[in-house]
Amino acid sequence: MTNITVAGTGYVGLVTGVCLAEVGHKVTCVDNIQEKIDILNQGISPIYEPELDELIVNNLKSQKMVFTTDYQSVYAESDVIFIGVGTPENEDGSANLNYVYTVARQIAESITRNCIVVVKSTVPIGTNEKVEAIIKEYLKNDVKVEVASNPEFLAQGTAVKDTLKASRIVIGVESLEAEQVLREIYKPFNQPILSMNRRSAEMVKYASNDFLALKISFINDIANLCEVVGANIEDVTKGMSYDERIGNKFLNPGIGYGGSCFPKDTKALHWLSEEEGYVLRTVKAAIEVNEKQKFKLIQKARKRFNTFKGVKVAVLGLTFKPGTDDLREAPSIPNIRLLLNEGAEVHAYDPVGIANFKKIYPTQVHYEKNIEDTLEDADLCFIFTEWKEIKEIDLNLFVKMMKTPFIYDGRNCFDLSKVRATDIKYHSIGRPDTFEKKVEVTATTY
Ligand code: NAD
């Protein structure tokens, strides 16, 4: 049996490890944070991800999984080691590869048998070669190591489903032997496996993420223009989506993308292209549109509130998207920072994001246990995340609970016709404001 190890128990490493165990492999997950390993060994996931806890418990019970910080002993016995550690953004926008390189060195110093090292982290084109060079430089024993690329495409909030039913598995290899080993590991997933060279595999990941970011920024740009020219983005996207070449995914306007991937992956590719003397104009535009879009709601609110000093602000949703507790690059953060700096009294609610938000603002924000308490006596409300329970709010609650029901919805959670039936003063993205009591003709399909 192949001994599989995964380095890093974050969103990618942990989900990869658990899903590899779920399809029948024996997997050891390594992290350098003891606290994470301790709670994983109790069958508890350190991150919020639907279905994950149950799979951890099952695979621990069936002894298909081990969690440890003892990387030396584990790497020594591994046949295949997946690297799933973080590649955050450096200040200049380039990718910080220190975590990946540290693992590469730890592997080199520990392995005692021939081994395939698989880079699952999102890394700039050419990184697999550097990882291989580092391993060769620090290798302690006379063993053969091959480095392969295997970028990850899961999305937070649906990570387990995305892994078990992956749209595709991309492997970048420089030998048929490595390809064969990886194909065998992924065989039980029964999904399309595409093999190519390492540089192409590294590029597939960036090109995919940057294309999705581009799609979001494009539709946000069009939504902004809709507001100026009096069109309704909802009807516009509906009209566009019937064209199969366009499709209906990733056409939701809002206050911009966040999370641990799109912001850093657009910047990293843009940085890399500039280094190579090529200007990636489309990706640059996506980044610029997104930066501005984050403050779209505040700009709208400023038209009514000259200052936020002393204003009681309700905030619904903190995470960068629903289904995750991740706050990395969440638009809520710069917006709340701005509100607090201006002296607003911020009351916030999120179904799972509060614990992480408290790490950024331990005391300055009033954290509420439910939507009603958050809205109580508020002068205005910002919606930053489209959680299901937020989309399902009884609209009369805004009128009943708030001092003045000014809603600035950054995720277009509500039907305009339903909002119009209430006294809510509603501002969303790319759609008419509801206090303009106009007769609305909406796109209808017969
Ligand atoms: P993360 O920050 O959630 O997890 C990284 C983990 O690695 C942490 O638990 C950290 O403690 C651990 N770690 C750091 N150094 C280590 C070491 N030397 N040995 C063992 N463990 C170590 O990161 P993530 O969100 O899982 O992302 C990991 C990579 O996958 C990144 O390159 C990211 O771009 C990519 N990716 C992320 C997603 C996503 O949705 N989060 C999707 C696809 C790809």
UniProtKB/TrEMBL annotation:
Q: What residue stretches are annotated with the UDP-glucose/GDP-mannose dehydrogenase C-terminal domain?
A: 314-416
Please give the SMART domains that the UniProt record associates with this protein.
UDPG_MGDP_dh_C (SM00984)
What is the E.C. number? Answer: 1.1.1.22
Instruction: Kindly provide the name given to this protein in its UniProt entry.
Output: UDP-glucose 6-dehydrogenase
| Reactions it catalyzes | UDP-alpha-D-glucose + 2 NAD(+) + H2O = UDP-alpha-D-glucuronate + 2 NADH + 3 H(+)
- Pathway terms, separated by semicolons: Nucleotide-sugar biosynthesis; UDP-alpha-D-glucuronate biosynthesis; UDP-alpha-D-glucuronate from UDP-alpha-D-glucose: step 1/1
Q: Which organism is it from?
A: Priestia aryabhattai
Q: Which residues form the active site?
A: C261 (nucleophile)
Q: Provide this UniProt record's keywords sorted from A to Z.
A: NAD, Oxidoreductase
Amino-acid positions noted as binding NAD(+) in the UniProt annotation, renumbered to this chain: D31, K36, T87, T122, K264, R328
User: Which top EC class is given?
Assistant: oxidoreductase
| A molecular function GO annotation | UDP-glucose 6-dehydrogenase activity
Q: Which SUPFAM superfamilies match?
A: 6-phosphogluconate dehydrogenase C-terminal domain-like, NAD(P)-binding Rossmann-fold domains, UDP-glucose/GDP-mannose dehydrogenase C-terminal domain
The entry's family comment says: Belongs to the UDP-glucose/GDP-mannose dehydrogenase family.
Q: In which residues is substrate bound?
A: K205, F250, L251, N252, P253, G254, G258, K321
Keyword Cell membrane among UniProt keywords: no
